[in-house]
Design a protein that fits this description.
The complex is a heterodimer.
Chain A (H helix, E strand, L loop, with lengths): L6 H11 L3 H9 L1 H16 L5 H23 L7 H28 L1 H6 L6 H27 L11 H22 L6 H15 L6 H5 L3 H7 L1 H13 L7 H26 L2 H4 L1
Helix pairs in contact in A: 3-7, 4-5, 4-7, 5-7, 5-8, 5-9, 5-12, 7-8, 8-12, 8-13, 11-12, 12-13
Chain B lengths: L1 E14 L7 H10 L9 E14 L3 E5 L6 H8 L7 E6 L3 E4 L12 H11 L4 H15 L14 H13 L5 E5 L7 H16 L3 E5 L3 H7 L2 E6 L2 E6 L1 H19 L10 E2 L4 E9 L8 E3 L4 E14 L2 E8 L3 E4 L12 E12 L7 E10 L6 E14 L46
Parallel strand pairs in B: 3-7, 3-8, 5-6, 6-7, 12-18
Antiparallel strand pairs in B: 1-2, 1-4, 8-9, 10-18, 11-13, 13-16, 14-15, 14-17, 17-18
Helix pairs in contact in B: 3-4, 3-5, 4-5, 7-8
Classes of the chains: A mainly alpha, B alpha/beta.
Chain lengths: 278, 431
């Protein structure tokens, strides 16, 4: 046994924390729980209000109306169909916020359960990401409505949309896993996240074009901020209506997988402490 | 075959008072640590070298004081906690009833919660479908099953939680005195279910403060003392030894007011800061006479806003007889929220206790009665003396009156009255 606190100790701890196939198989066995947790989130959100879905769509629609006003009337950006351009960014961003901020709370909010019942804790952040995915799916309806209203008929590139969504799903799962576990020993994770998310929003091309801001540094920005690449994927498919660069899409996917691996490792390192400290 | 084997299981909790609890503290710590090396670590061994085996199809009881490691042991067997050293081997599907209905969501209906809670416990949808009617029937909630559980009483919630859990069909059932909740009829039903489990050849591992239950149900009993095995074996002799030891300890301790810290537990967001017994003039005392008015006043301090707390009082005779356990929720007193300091009074118009020394517990919990903020287990002492000519047999008297019916003939209907057995014939009188 290497000495506590030494580099070897942490390295060995890290190796032993890597989830093995049995852990993943168990997680798969609990898929029904994930399904039920997602169903619960949606039921609770939309229960008692027939217009619940409408409320969840109001935010991105109102935001995109505001941005459209600012960037076509007050300081024109020069982008045609700006409303569509910004709505795509906002929907991807809202899913990100819901998944990361909600994911951070997911384990702490289920404290009594984690303390008293055995189940793979991963299902909590994962189901948060998935229930926000469903909301993202709902929001695609007005998005397609807007496309049609602007005379943009989606082309055959649409077959790649599921891959773009899967990429974001993988990326957000990694972030939510890490945030959910970190929030247990560090209870101010939520406060730190507030600031980080605000900064991230402005550093992500939600309401502007990367190329306008970063110029020659665009490529670096896409690599440093995977969300920029994820949004770029959506825009190629839904706004520019063209076939994407396959290398760009695959690189984004590879990055998302790396983020998931890193996030799951952070989670796994803290996993044994969760029932004790939550 | 053994259903569960524990070999040299130890569990260490490391309490680091200096450990940063937030990024903010971690950041401040970066600057501070240069000046002072403050790596204080308090180790606490909740379990130490515990070894035992539970044969498949037997009932295994765990007894011990509060804080002796019983719950930790159950959590280790249930895989919730990972032992620091040693191994736990489990053969078969385990269900741990450590908290009933922990996963219930108030906005969902009873039926929806059955599916949710069932899947938390690892059940598949079709397995729940097959058991759904039995679960609803067992919980006695046929009428309310499609009502959101926020409208349920705490008793209904507990019934639903237990019903789901016992219909899981586990090979090994782990339970932690959750049966001490719910009304008496339902408690019996739960016990019946547990006996049924035992008869069906399932393995049961249970923590119990009820030594009679442990003796009746268990094939083997483990006595844990400060995380170590004190005795293991035949239920009668182990519970006997435990009882003797704990009686002797209580005797040596003298006044329970100076009790050990393990008589108090909770999460302490609300603390009961003091308890007073007031006489009819509002003066604090701990001597009362049978029939006196008594006010038990609990002073509390809520460190943050707590919504819908429930305050409770328990009166005990000695260590084993729990006489009464009223609380504000049962009485219908809804306290919307508390914050800061305050007090709650439990006023007894007439103390129906006869002569003796009674121990009083106080507690404050959340609205579901499952999350305890502060629990003082029999920490206070109340002495009652009798009044000349008043009742003196048994610990309580019921407010009642006697009536003499002169000349009523002895025709007793078969039910609900009882006919006594005929007196023994004069020739066969004993002695």
């Amino acid at each position: 046994m290497p000495e506590f606190g030494s580099g070897t100790y942490y390295f060995k701890a890290m190796l032993s924390a890597i989830p093995g196939p049995d852990r993943l198989a168990e997680l798969f066995r609990y898929r029904e729980l994930v399904y039920n947790l997602v169903a619960r989130d949606l039921k609770v959100r939309y229960k008692n209000s027939v217009i619940g879905v409408f409320w969840s769509l109001l935010n991105p629609l109102a935001m995109s109306a505001i941005f459209t006003f600012v960037f076509t009337v007050l300081m024109p950006s020069g982008l045609p169909n700006y409303a569509l351009y910004v709505l795509i960014g906002l929907l991807a961003w809202n899913w990100t916020v819901g998944a990361v901020v909600g994911g951070a709370q997911s384990i702490v909010a289920h404290g009594p359960l984690v303390k008293k019942v055995y189940f793979p804790t991963e299902v909590l952040p994962i189901s948060t990401v998935l229930s926000n995915l469903i909301n993202f799916g709902f929001a695609l309806v007005p998005l397609f409505g807007l496309m049609l209203a602007l005379g943009q008929v989606p082309g055959p590139q649409l077959v790649l949309l599921p891959l773009a969504i899967l990429t974001q799903l993988i990326f957000l799962s990694g972030l939510a896993l890490a945030a959910s576990a970190l929030n247990v020993p560090f209870r101010d994770t939520a406060a730190v996240l507030d600031v980080l998310m605000l900064g991230w929003f402005f550093l992500t091309p939600v309401f502007y074009r990367v190329e306008d801001l970063a110029g020659g540094w665009s490529r670096l920005m896409y690599i440093v901020n995977p969300l920029a690449s994820i949004i770029a994927n959506y825009r190629v498919l839904l706004y520019y209506n063209t076939w994407p660069d396959p290398l760009f899409m695959l690189r984004t996917l590879a990055q998302a997988i790396l983020v998931l691996a890193a996030g799951y490792l952070v989670f796994s390192l803290l996993r044994d402490r969760l029932p004790e400290e939550v | 075959m053994d259903a569960v084997t524990c070999e040299g299981v130890s569990k260490r909790f490391i309490l680091r008072p200096d450990r940063p609890r937030s990024f903010q503290e971690a950041l401040i710590g970066l600057f501070r640590r240069r000046h002072q090396n403050s790596a204080r670590r308090v180790e606490f061994w909740a379990l130490r070298d515990v070894s035992f085996a539970v044969r498949a199809g037997t009932a295994f009881g765990i007894v011990g004081e509060n804080g002796s490691g019983k719950s930790t042991l159950l959590k280790v067997i249930a895989r919730i906690l990972k032992p620091t050293s040693g191994t736990v081997r489990v053969n078969g599907r385990v269900t741990a009833l450590l908290e009933l209905g922990a996963g219930f969501h108030p906005e969902l209906t009873g039926r929806e919660n059955i599916y949710l809670y069932g899947s938390i416990l690892g059940l598949k949808r079709r397995e729940i479908n097959a058991r759904l009617d039995d679960i609803i029937q067992f919980a006695e909630l046929e009428q309310f099953i499609d009502t959101p559980v926020k409208h349920y009483s705490s008793g209904m919630l507990v019934r639903l939680g237990f019903a789901v859990a016992v219909h899981l069909d586990p090979d090994i059932l782990i339970t932690d005195e959750v049966l001490a909740v719910g009304d008496e009829a339902f408690q019996h039903k739960c016990l019946d279910k547990i006996y049924e489990f035992a008869r069906a050849g399932r393995t049961i591992i249970m923590v119990s403060h009820d030594l009679n239950l442990a003796r009746q149900l268990c094939d083997e009993v483990l006595w844990l003392d400060r995380g170590q095995v004190r005795a293991l074996g035949d239920p009668v002799s182990v519970t006997r030894a435990y009882l003797d030891w704990s009686n002797e300890k209580a005797f040596r301790r003298g006044a329970p007011a100076e009790a050990a810290p393990n008589r108090r537990w909770g999460t302490f967001e609300v603390e009961v800061t003091g308890v007073e017994f007031l006489d009819r003039d509002g003066n604090p005392t701990w001597f009362f006479a049978t029939g006196d008015p008594v006010t038990i006043r609990l002073h509390y301090r809520a460190h943050r806003r707590i919504n819908r707390p429930v305050f409770g009082v328990g009166i005990h005779l000695g260590e084993s007889v729990h006489i009464t356990g009223p609380n504000t929720r049962f009485a219908g007193l809804e306290i919307p929220f508390i914050e800061g300091d305050g007090a709650v009074e439990y006023r007894v118009r007439e103390l129906n206790l006869t002569r003796g020394v009674y121990l009083v517990s106080v507690a404050v919990s959340d609205h579901s009665l499952t999350h305890l903020y502060d629990y003082h287990d029999r920490l206070y002492r109340l002495e009652v003396r009798s009044r000349p000519g008043r009742e003196a047999f048994g610990p309580v008297y019921l407010p009642a009156e006697w009536r003499h019916l002169n000349g009523v003939a002895g025709s007793i209907r078969p039910l609900p009255g009882y006919r006594p057995a005929p007196p023994p014939s004069p020739g066969r009188q004993p002695g």
